[in-house]
Structure formats: structure tokens, C-alpha cells
Design brief:
With 121 residues, the chain is mainly beta. It contains no helices and 9 strands. Strands 1, 2, 4, 7 and 9 form a 5-stranded antiparallel sheet that branches.
Length: 121
């Protein structure tokens, strides 16, 4: 039986400028933008604030600085079968903090993309 792999897209997660903290705080959820519900093959981080932010994939360490009005899309394994390839694990929380100056406008966004396999006759 053949299979067709299609792209699934999770609803966007957002955090407004006023909620972006100076430090991540997993105990209170400060800086939590969202998480992928499915193991994701691709994701996009967007900083539509007026200041530079720092992204974290563990809520402790800094991983990815991003300038104002910047974005980052990572295609981890979009053209692999669902059970193959590298994935951002499900329920991996994405965190953000401002780097030096608190933003005064805008939001940050996280969108996850995943695979849905459909059997075909």
C-alpha cells in the first residue's frame, strides 16, 4: 500500500511585547511562547517587536538571537517519510526574552509544521 505525506500546520503561538521578560522562568512560565503538539519537521520563529530578542529551546540557555523584524525558518526534515528524519520533539517549549532593551511594540510568534501520512490504495 502506498502512502501520501501531507503537511500539517499547528495554530500559531504568540507572545505580546509586554509579556516578553528579561529572563526565562520555567517556574512561572515567563517567556514561554508555545510548544509543538506534534513532532515537527519545520518551524518558524518571528520577532515582530521593535527590539532584539533571544530564543531558547530549553528555558535555561540562550540559543538564537534575533533582530527586530527578523524571522528564522528551519526545515529539519520536510521531505522525509513520517517515521524518518530529525524532528523537533513534541511538547518542546519555545522560550523568548529581550536581549538588552524591553520592546515597546509588536509580538513574537512560533509556528510548527508536521507530517500527516495518509494510506492510499
Amino acid at each position: 500500500m502506498a502512502q501520501s505525506t501531507q503537511l500539517g500546520i499547528e495554530p500559531v503561538d504568540a507572545l505580546g511585547y509586554a509579556a516578553i521578560p528579561a529572563t526565562y522562568d520555567p517556574a512561572t512560565g515567563a517567556g514561554e511562547v508555545g510548544y509543538a503538539i506534534q513532532p515537527c519537521r519545520m518551524f518558524t520563529l518571528q520577532n515582530f517587536t521593535n527590539e532584539t530578542v533571544m530564543w531558547s529551546f530549553d528555558g535555561v540557555n540562550d540559543h538564537l538571537p534575533m533582530l527586530s523584524m527578523g524571522y528564522f525558518t528551519l526545515d529539519i526534515s520536510a521531505n522525509q517519510q513520517q517515521i524518518q528524519g530529525l524532528f523537533l520533539d513534541e511538547f518542546r517549549t519555545i522560550w523568548v526574552r529581550y536581549l538588552t532593551t524591553p520592546p515597546t511594540s509588536g509580538s513574537v510568534y512560533f509556528t510548527a509544521f508536521y507530517a500527516v501520512d495518509y494510506p492510499q490504495d
